[in-house]
Amino acid sequence: MHLGYLISLIESKPMTAREICRALDIDASREREVYESLKKASKVLKKKGKTLVMSPPVCRKCGFEFEKLNPSRCPKCKSEWIEPAVFYVEK
Ligand SMILES: [Zn+2]
């Protein structure tokens, strides 16, 4: 995965891992690779004095904030209606 392109994507607007997959034209089943690349991108950005920010996944039903990147179900209300994590760059 091309880190420079990934960085330019999330610098232009906040994106979820799924949207990044779509933008990079890779299958959604490879979301895990996106998370790995975001980790690397975070280090690259740090050197440039920028910060990769993740707003965590949130349960749409009860508002629970997840610490896990890619939860499937809310531990509080058992809802599977989850707003995914969003990534963006803070300058
Ligand atoms: Zn919930």
Can you describe what's shown?
The protein has 91 residues and is an alpha+beta fold. The protein has three helices and five strands, in the order H-E-H-H-E-E-E-E. Strands 1-5-2 form a three-stranded antiparallel beta sheet. The mean pLDDT is 94. Zinc ion binds next to loops.
List keywords for this structure.
two-stranded antiparallel sheet, 91 residues, globular, alpha+beta, 18% strand, binds zinc ion, 38% helix
Mean pLDDT: 94
Domain module tally: 1
The separation of the N and C termini measures 23 Å
Widest sheet, order of strands: 1-5-2
**Helical segment tally?**
3
Bound molecules: zinc ion
Largest sheet: 3 strands, antiparallel
Write a compact overview of the structure shown.
This protein has 91 residues and is of the alpha+beta class.
Q: Would you spell out the secondary-structure blueprint of this structure?
A:
Layout (H helix, E strand, L loop, with lengths): L2 H10 L2 E2 H8 L6 H17 L3 E5 L2 E2 L22 E2 L2 E5 L1
Antiparallel strand pairs: 1-5, 2-5, 3-4
Helix pairs in contact: 1-3
The protein binds zinc ion (ZN).
